[in-house]
Design a protein that fits this description.
three-stranded antiparallel β-sheet, 3 strands, globular, 117 residues, Helix-turn-helix transcriptional regulator
């Protein structure tokens, strides 16, 4: 039985493939922001709309549906008057929390570097 030899080129190709998979799921302007919000707490649709500055209602709905389809968040319709919809991060989605922290830390450092100390 042959064992596969990992070469830097093969490892790079595998890393690129994995990153492309992540970008297909999290790509775009809003998904990481939505996930970040939901890592802190459950939120209603209207709360997310306020918290994620600049997103339109139509775009928020689309992004939430895609995140739900990828099992990163859950959507719960509460039995209230009027009906309230609440979104929460799933256990699987919570595995992205460290990723969001790293992105946020890098972004803060980048902002300082580009805009000055």
């Amino acid at each position: 039985m042959e064992t596969e030899v990992k070469t830097p080129v093969k490892e790079c190709a595998n890393a690129i493939l994995a990153i492309q998979d992540v970008m297909d799921i999290l790509g775009g302007k809003w998904k990481v922001s939505i996930i970040t919000c939901l890592c802190f707490d459950k939120m209603r649709y209207s709360d997310l709309l306020k918290e994620v500055k600049g997103i339109s209602g139509k775009m928020l709905s689309r992004e939430l549906k895609e995140l739900e389809a990828n099992e990163l968040i859950t959507r719960t319709v509460l039995n209230t008057q009027p009906i309230t919809v609440e979104y929460a991060i799933t256990e699987y989605g919570a595995t992205l929390e460290n990723v969001t922290k790293v992105i946020a830390a890098w972004g803060l450092n980048h902002r300082k570097k580009i805009m000055g100390k």
